[in-house]
Amino acid sequence: MKVQDHAQAAAQFIKDEERTDWHDETLWFVRQKRDLAAHGIPEWEQLREWASQIKDHTLSNLSHYLESFEQKAIANGIRVHWAADGEEHNKIVHQIIADHDLKRIVKSKSMLTEECHLNEYLIQKGISVVDTDLGERIVQLRKEAPSHIVLPAIHLKKQDVSDTFHDFLDTEKGNNDPQYLTEAARQHLRDYFIASELAITGVNFAIAETGGFVVCTNEGNADMGAHTANVHIACMGIEKIIPKAEHLGVFLRLLARSATGQPVTTYSSHFHRPREGQEMHLVIVDNGRTRQLGRADFRNSLKCIRCAACFNTCPVYRRSGGHSYHTAVAGPIGSILNPNLDMKANADLPFASTLCGSCSNVCPVKIDIHEQLYKWRQVIVQAGYAPVSKKLGMEGMAAVLSSPALYHFSGKMGRTTLKYAPFLVNNGFNPWYKQRDMPAPPAESFGEWYQKNRS
Amino acid sequence: MKVALFIPCYVDQFYPKAAIATLELLEKFGLEVSYPKNQTCCGQPMANSGFEHLTKGCNNLFVENFSGYDYIVCPSGSCVMHIKDHLHTEENEAAAQDIRNKVYELTEFLVDVLKIEKLEASFPHKVGLHQSCHGQRGLKLSQMTELMAEPFSKPGHLLSMVKGLELVELDRKDECCGFGGTFCVTEEAVSVKMGKDRVLDHERNGAEYITAGDLSCLMHMEGILKRRGSKVKIIHIAEILNHHLS
């Protein structure tokens, strides 16, 4: 089955206008919380600049920092694995699980494992993983993908969660009390934490000078999983590296404020070495990142720290929902990352934007997202992934607009049509007219007026 | 001072009143303004759709029409931004660069070049100011809410000189209206939803008119207002600044 493109899926989402308004307002509230938190830091714009420069510098010296990180991590007793792509990443994780023959596996939030489709891969091998982030657990029970990288279940209302928990956790039907539902999830997940034998986590920052890594959560679920399990596997993309521990003073201040408006994530857990008797693995994944690094126009998309501020501010995302982006990472940042992973399948995404530029200006690491959206459009059209009808339309338009005579003639024709035969335009085949009136055609163009009145 | 008037294609065809107001306003300040007759379009509709390679004809025509002036003034932030960012020609890149430096959006020209501090204009109405994204975030005509920086607004500064005009406060000061060029038809559902939400913000806060520096946003919102049978009207900022009680 062909995946719906963004425009079709968004139209489907908007059909429920009340829910769309709720989704929009909920995420706008998060954007406002971000504004408030950022206003509390006089040096906010300076922090963004520092973060941007640290990331630029790191990307320009990535192999150096990756190697020194690996050295330090190994010296600390961490086992380091390298994966060229998602498939290799999944195989490595599976091999570690198989070597130990472990069954009780918990995973805290990691967008990389979503990108690599780790859960589906392991299910095929007969292994099931329990997602322990509350939002992720909710969507996992519903067999859905996360719709937002920080707030995975933001597309669901509390009654949806209540229904899901009633079906899977045997909670009271119709009890929508968030406290009650959270307590039910807490009890349910606690059993898994206590029994966990192997914990998978993501990585927010990997520090080259120490060989340690930092995982940020609000629920403490990464710690609970890793602290009880005898095997900890952390998965990271190659771009998660920062040179020094002191740089966390820049990134941790920006991350939570940009993401949810909190001063800092509730838990910023620093892992340096396995505890006595524990095994700690680190899987470092490329999966198209070096290809993106080689694209001059798009390389700085790899600066992303996955805060989702661009999601929350995006007027298109707020009104179309994360699933309409049909990829692990949705929103504006996803629309510049995903064409690198599969240009044909994701050719619609750079067009799911008005290029309003809000994303680039909330971005804590100053990625020029909207400019990259524009550039991806050019690349996608050049690669032949534009619909034929659009291509023909654009060629016709370019021919008319390149010729003053044709332009004046067509303009007059257009206005005359609107005046005397509006039914040719005002019909169901014109997407403008579906929910909008056409402008009233004036008697003369400005050019015609000027000819009479000024020359 | 030789000033060329750059009128976007859809303004020429559908909103001549805004173009006339721009011309008259500039003439009031004693400027010698001419309108190069063979101008068509800046090429943005193609470029933003991924077809920048088809804009060579438009670019050459633009350079032909607009070379040799001291300033080029246009009542559209979006078209000005496109020219500033993307006007290039293989034949005469020096001329293209000269144009990129001399092209101004109307309100920035009035505030930054003419340094207007007084206007003989009156418009006794409640007006909502729509911040068009390309003007605001692209040309920095106003401070955006995303940045932690001093607020300012060039269009707001000019509107504050208009007698009787009351600016209404909006709940969302600078959210996109959803026009977005070909986005308005390729993503029709999202585009209209965004436009509806913008229009409702103005209605809710008591605006009689929605004004902006870009008629593309206004055309989109006008289409929605009319379909909804709303009493709120749209008006280009040039028409307000040029408006006086007769």
Overall mean pLDDT of chain B: 96
Quaternary assembly: heterodimer
Head-to-tail CA distance between termini of chain A:
62 Å
Give me the strand/helix succession of chain B: EHHEHHEHHEHEHHEHHEHEH
What helical percentage do the residues of chain A reach? 40-55%
Largest sheet of chain B: 4 strands, parallel
- Structural class, judged by helices and strands of chain A? alpha/beta
- The structural class of chain B is alpha/beta
Number of helical segments of chain A?
Answer: 22
Q: How many β strands of chain B by DSSP?
A: 8
Number of strands of chain A: 10
Q: What is the global morphology of chain B?
A: globular
Characterize the biggest β-sheet of chain A: 6 strands, parallel
What strand order characterises the main sheet of chain B?
2-1-3-4
Ranges of chain B with pLDDT <50 over ≥5 residues? none
Strand content of chain A: 5-15%
Description:
The complex is a heterodimer of chains A (455) and B (246). Chain A has 455 residues and is α/β, with parallel strands linked by helices. Helices cover 52% and strands 10% of the residues of chain A. Chain B has 246 residues and is an alpha/beta fold. Chain B contains 13 helices and eight strands. Chain B has helices at residues 9-14, 16-28, 44-48, 56-66, 77-86, 93-102, 106-113, 133-138, 154-159, 183-186, 188-204, 215-228, 237-241, and strands spanning 2-5, 32-34, 71-74, 103-105, 126-129, 166-167, 209-212, 233-236. In chain B, helix 12 links the parallel strand 7 (209-212) and strand 8.
